[in-house]
TrEMBL record:
GO terms for molecular function: iron ion binding. Belongs to the Fe(2+)-trafficking protein family. GO terms for cellular component: cytosol. It holds the Pfam family Iron_traffic. GO terms for biological process: cellular response to oxidative stress. Keywords: Iron. The lineage of its organism: Bacteria, Pseudomonadati, Pseudomonadota, Gammaproteobacteria, Orbales. HAMAP family: Fe_traffic_YggX (MF_00686). This is Probable Fe(2+)-trafficking protein. Could be a mediator in iron transactions between iron acquisition and iron-requiring processes, such as synthesis and/or repair of Fe-S clusters in biosynthetic enzymes. Necessary to maintain high levels of aconitase under oxidative stress.
Length: 89
């Protein structure tokens, strides 16, 4: 059965995540306030961030940068800026 939540990112009701995908308090907030659709949007941005910056997910500093971008993207309405990336028109 799907959960319907008010998605902070989309600013509307939408299907919630099936389970908590991220640890800790931030993970609980994502589970309660971010929809599946918004999470998919974030995953696309995260992949671009990791690839363009050659981030290593074993590196704590890199993971922290990604987490900061995730919070800005999902909760603060800021798009992810990737150095050197030009979106296709």
């Amino acid at each position: 059965m799907s959960r319907i939540i008010y998605c902070h990112f989309l600013k509307e009701e939408s299907q919630g995540l099936d389970y908590q995908l991220y640890p800790g308090e931030l993970g609980k907030r994502i589970y309660n306030e971010i929809s599946k659709l918004a999470w998919q949007e974030w995953l696309k941005k995260q992949t671009m961030l990791i690839n363009e910056n050659k981030f290593n997910m074993m590196n704590l500093e890199h993971r922290k940068k990604i987490e900061n971008e995730m919070v800005k993207f999902l909760f603060e309405g800021e798009d992810v800026v990737i150095d050197g990336y030009k979106p296709e028109n």
